[in-house]
């Protein structure tokens, strides 16, 4: 396996032949090719749910302009658990999701409660 870093100013481009082949495909053929790809199987419902939950937590954290360690410390969450949730490796339980909802809607109340 070769590792390299993509240059954002010079992204890889399709060759004219590749672009023509893709343009000639129907949406059904594109879908079937994606489903047949053994290196990239479709996500399960559980994987999608973990991704949605992780994105919600990450967006909340980013809206507060906090790093993962700072967010974890401020809201007394294990930083490894936060990282696993944000990266979609684990699904947060209902108590964690409820806590995130409270932080989203009543941030000042949470801050006051944790300060005392």
From TrEMBL:
One of its GO terms (molecular function) is DNA binding. InterPro entries: Cro/C1-type_HTH (IPR001387), Lambda_DNA-bd_dom_sf (IPR010982). Residues 28-52 are annotated as: Disordered. Residues 28-48 have a biased composition (Acidic residues). It holds the Pfam family HTH_31. Residues 57-97 form the HTH cro/C1-type domain. This is Transcriptional regulator.
């Amino acid at each position: 396996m070769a590792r390299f870093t993509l240059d954002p100013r010079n992204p890889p481009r399709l060759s004219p032949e590749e672009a023509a082949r893709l343009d000639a495909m129907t949406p059904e053929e594109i879908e079937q090719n994606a489903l047949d790809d053994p290196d990239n199987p479709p996500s399960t419902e559980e994987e999608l749910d973990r991704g949605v939950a992780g994105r919600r937590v990450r967006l909340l954290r980013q809206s507060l302009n906090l790093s993962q360690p700072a967010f974890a410390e401020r809201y007394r969450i294990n930083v490894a658990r936060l990282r696993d949730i944000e990266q979609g490796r684990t699904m947060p339980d209902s108590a964690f999701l409820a806590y995130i909802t409270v932080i989203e809607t009543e941030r000042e109340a949470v801050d006051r409660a944790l300060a005392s």
